[in-house]
Write a structure and sequence with these properties.
EC 2.3.-.-; alpha+beta; 36% helix; GNAT_dom; 5 helices; five-stranded mixed β-sheet
Length: 160
């Protein structure tokens, strides 16, 4: 099986959204995806793109993607945050995920980034072990913190 990894184009966003939905199913959050193809097209390909994306193809069909964006570390400087890397279930274990991962890390290094970072669920042991084998550090002591739209609204209302 020949794998081709390339930068995503605007017309790839329907396939990217399919993969995002598949990831949500895998992560046991099937109803959590709110983003649309139009959102991805606008936010990834507008005047000031908010993200970049690589896609992995076999036989001309997109079977995996890695979506990432720049961040800035006050300690390190320019970094890349890998938001999601997903491969269709039937293509897992066939090298697509590794090819996407390699591409993101190589791209980050070529862009002069000081760090590439991402979040992994603790129960996704296959991914955790893969990352560790590649030399990545998986921190136990750091916690992801988020404030969703409703919480932000409540917070702002209390401050008014």
């Amino acid at each position: 099986m020949k794998i081709e990894v390339r930068k995503a184009a605007k017309e790839d966003m329907p396939a990217v959204l399919e993969l995002i939905n598949e990831l949500a199913e895998f992560e046991k959050e099937p109803d959590a995806v709110e983003v649309s193809v139009a959102d991805l097209e606008r936010d990834g390909f507008g005047e000031r793109p908010l993200f970049e994306c690589f896609v992995a193809e076999t036989d001309g069909k997109i079977e995996g993607m890695a979506l990432f964006y720049y961040r800035y570390s006050t300690w390190k400087g320019k970094t890349i945050h890998l938001e999601d890397l997903v491969v269709r279930e039937e293509f897992r274990g066939k090298g697509l995920g590794g090819a996407l991962y390699n591409q993101v890390i190589e791209y980050s290094r070529a862009q002069g980034c000081k760090r590439t970072e991402w979040v992994v669920l603790d129960w996704n042991t296959k991914a955790v072990e893969f990352y560790k084998k590649t030399g990545a550090t998986v921190f136990d002591e750091w916690r992801t913190v988020q404030m969703d739209e409703a919480a932000m609204q409540s917070f702002c209302n209390k401050r008014s």
